[in-house]
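so im writing up the methods section and need the Glycosyl transferase family 51 record in one place, dumping it here so i stop losing it
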Amino acid sequence: MIRKKYQHYTLPGKPDFMKTLKILFVVLTLAILLFSAYESAMVLKAYQNTQTIKRHWLNDQVIKIRFQDVPTERINMLLSVEDPGFFEHNGVDFETPGAGYTTISQALCKAMYFDNFKPGFAKIEQTLISVLVLDQHFSKEEQLNIFLNTAYMGHINGRGIYGFANAARVYFESEFNSLTDQQFLALVAMVVAPNGFNIKTNPTQNEERVKRIQKLLAGEYVPKSLTDIYYQQEI
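--- predicted struct ---
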């Protein structure tokens, strides 16, 4: 009698959880190390380029308005709205109510150190460069000089407007030092969203934001959180 031979099969068991966990840990560790190495390289590159960047942005062709020549009251108006912790923070501020997620230092970093900034990982890089490079090598006065002269102030007839001096001429046909406080606040109101609060194309929205800013400056409104930058939460 011929007996049939049967092949024995081993049924698959349960996955080795610990082995899978170890693999995931190794992959995650490698990803973190690679990311850290990349970001370190970007920060180093920014550091190496800083002197060239300073020469480009801190020259008489760029700097038409100087921080020292702007009345202190107006600097306080601007900072109270745009970056209330500017003189205290090291380039980043995630605590001050009303500050928003982007400081003046970070805004400058985006313009000065990035050719094509895209949200996402670039925000981490922007933060690192702001803290470790820009705020270490540009004084607060230098940062304000650059900001006053290069801040994006909306588009008019397809043309981008940059800096408060140009904005004063375009929106009020006036020199910057001749602006009234109301006109200056109208420009400050634009900074957070230059086209959304554009003086010429969205005057009603600009006027409403100016009123809210005036309440802030008068102490009649206190921002409720970091992201309360439009002062629209009820008191």
